[in-house]
Design brief:
about 350 residues; 3 strands
């Protein structure tokens, strides 16, 4: 692509990030989009810096499509105006005055909530037939849908197109991430977009926005599943849905890693000699209650349990001895009467 001219409505000789951008826009935007916007501001205030879509893509190790997608997002937020020539080539990017732009239609979120809550996932809104026709004419979306059709092996229906556009537009997934999502699901034999959407939503909630992060998550997931199968002795089958729900609870809700979860599964087999996710869950729930964070904590908890058991056993033995002594029939004697009887016996 050719070099692109950056300019603004008003002249400022320094890089300025308005507070309004930080307060109203930055906190809700995809982090990669924010980096692109800030880099544009930097380039705009230094005419000596070369600028093109490929330059920015190289800078952040993204594809040119990712950069275009970020620019379109900020245009949608009314912070940029993209300018094209008659061949629809991007020739200019104009920074609009933030203070004069309409407020983004995003609910305010306090900084405290933002730190502790998982990223909000916007609800699915299906596109109309007219909107689908319009979106399908955009080059990047046309290519994305073409790749999806190739993986799924059939022309996409409206439901499938709506799902893919939801991942792209609402979840802010890059084309590469969507390609990886579809490819990896199909490779595992799952061609249902409903299945794919469950994965997409879990990624969005976990803040996963790049292919490398998705691969790392898949690796951790695969490692955990393999470890659990080994601990339980499961062979020749995958986990069924309710078992996956238990695993997700152990990992996400309880916060346990592979090592501790495997230990609970092994202990289940030693205790009841059969696969039981319910029994393993009771072990892990107890460990969570006792704030276990490592195998050393498990050993310490076991030692404490054994000490209590030993103390209880000694107390039980002591009580048993007392009870054995008290088992003899107790007799009561009248001492004075006994003396009289002895004296009487002696005089005869």
């Amino acid at each position: 692509m050719a070099d692109i001219t950056l300019h603004r409505d008003s002249e400022i000789q320094r890089t300025v990030v308005p507070n309004y951008f930080i307060d109203a826009y930055m906190v809700h935007a995809n982090g990669e989009y924010v980096k692109v916007y800030l880099y544009l501001l930097r380039c705009m205030n230094d005419p000596t810096m070369p600028f093109s879509i490929s330059d920015v893509a190289d800078k952040f190790d993204h594809t040119e499509k990712d950069i275009i997608r970020a620019l379109k997002y900020w245009e949608k937020m009314h912070l940029l105006r993209l300018e094209f020539d008659e061949n629809k080539e991007l020739t200019g990017i104009c920074f609009l005055d933030v203070a004069s732009t309409p407020s983004p239609q995003i609910p305010a979120v306090s900084m405290q909530t933002k730190k502790t809550a998982a990223p909000d996932v916007p609800p699915r809104e299906n596109y109309s037939a007219a909107e689908l026709r319009r979106l399908k004419e955009e080059a990047d979306i046309k290519e994305l849908l073409f790749v999806a059709e190739h993986y799924l092996g059939h022309p996409l229906n409206a439901t499938e197109m709506n799902a893919i556009l939801y991942w792209k537009e609402a979840l802010n997934f890059s084309g590469d991430l969507i390609d990886y999502l579809i490819e990896s699901c199909v490779a595992k034999g799952h061609k249902s977009v409903h299945y794919m959407e469950k994965i997409a939503l879990s990624w969005a909630k976990a803040g996963i926005s790049t292919v490398s992060a998705a691969k790392e998550e898949a690796s951790r997931h695969s490692e955990l599943h393999t470890a659990i199968k080994k601990a339980f002795g499961i062979q020749g089958r995958d986990f069924v849905p309710y078992e996956k729900e238990y695993i997700n609870t152990w990992q996400k809700e309880y916060g346990f890693g592979t090592e501790i979860i495997s230990a609970a599964c092994e202990r289940t087999i030693r205790s009841i000699h059969q696969v039981s996710f319910e029994y393993a869950d009771s072990i892990l729930k107890n460990w969570k209650k006792n704030k276990v964070a490592s195998l050393q904590d498990v050993q310490a908890l076991d030692a404490l349990h054994q000490e209590k058991a030993a103390t209880a056993s000694k107390r039980s033995e002591t009580n048993a001895k007392k009870n054995r002594f008290n088992d003899f029939t107790q007799r009561s004697y009248d001492t004075s009467q006994l003396e009289k009887e002895l004296l009487h016996y002696g005089t005869n």
